[in-house]
């Protein structure tokens, strides 16, 4: 780091990526800042600068060893930082740069922290779940739904799914055998000798999934103009299991979407929708299968405007996935849900849905854009005329 870069960083003050510390910082306090950066997007700690931005410099001779020992002994798992010494007006500052971690980090006291603005914060339970999921440590769809019971599962729906796979149906004449089969399918989980549906199980086969998770639905809206201020054509909140949400979302679009009518061979009329249905289906399936289910209170949103269709899915991109590589790389935030949808025939296990959607749009002269909202809290697929 050059001196001018350091000075600019100090002038700009503490932020989500920069923290100031003096060299008398307590090891536990420094470990907490390191953990917060590693659990966020990384950042730099400047040791030798006080909270007001005044350059104090460091005086201890073992400052580098001090930092390394904290990274190795006070952070779990240990971290290897980038350490730089920069001189400013005969004073020395040590810049400790922490990269974004590929796992969830805690202090040696078992405390987790995340970066929120210019401060470290202890995460809420929901934020901690999200952190674990982003780092592929926890698959939320494999966790038990404690509010539900065995009776919350629609066994007829499970049988329809098994029949589609060509497998034997559930043994509903023997309760013990039925439970074993549902456990084998990961629809039920045995937790401390108590049976609970898995999140994936209740979303795919529950009698009423929204009874337990009201925001795990799809909010649909169609508007005459290019924004929400224009007249409303139709609005509807869709509820049901995963497959029902997908089919009802397609039905909604088919009801509000114009059709192009052309003569075929000069005799009969061929009706084609303005946007290719299969490409829209891929976008909806992607939203249902890969949304971040740790985000409560946010539904998938499907909007039809006069110049575009938007599918908005809660949550950013999973670990290691970017907008650039996602069309070629397989990623599964919710492996159980993905497996169930693959069994239903909605998606391939090889993860080619995004690429197929883009090619369908290209073949139909439709522009398809993938983006994230500025706060990275929504993944957006936008279809428009090319």
Short account of what is shown:
It contains eleven helices and 18 strands. 32% of the residues lie in helices and 24% in strands. The mean pLDDT is 90.
Task: Please provide a written account of the structure.
The protein has helices at residues 3-12, 27-39, 63-73, 125-134, 155-165, 175-184, 199-205, 242-256, 277-290, 335-344, 353-363; strands at residues 18-21, 43-47, 75-76, 82-88, 91-98, 106-107, 114-116, 119-121, 188-191, 194-197, 218-223, 232-238, 259-264, 268-273, 300-304, 308-314, 366-372, 378-385. It is α+β, with helices and mostly antiparallel strands and 386 residues long. The strands form 6 sheets. A 6-stranded mixed beta sheet has the order 12-11-15-16-18-17, covered by helices on one side. The protein has a 4-stranded mixed beta sheet with strand order 1-2-5-4, with helices on both faces. The model has no long low-confidence stretch (mean pLDDT 90).
Which helices and strands occur, and which strands form pairs?
Layout: H1 3-12, E1 18-21, H2 27-39, E2 43-47, H3 63-73, E3 75-76, E4 82-88, E5 91-98, E6 106-107, E7 114-116, E8 119-121, H4 125-134, H5 155-165, H6 175-184, E9 188-191, E10 194-197, H7 199-205, E11 218-223, E12 232-238, H8 242-256, E13 259-264, E14 268-273, H9 277-290, E15 300-304, E16 308-314, H10 335-344, H11 353-363, E17 366-372, E18 378-385
Parallel strand pairs: 1-2, 11-15
Antiparallel strand pairs: 2-5, 3-6, 4-5, 7-8, 9-10, 11-12, 13-14, 15-16, 16-18, 17-18
Helix pairs in contact: 2-3, 7-10, 8-9, 9-11
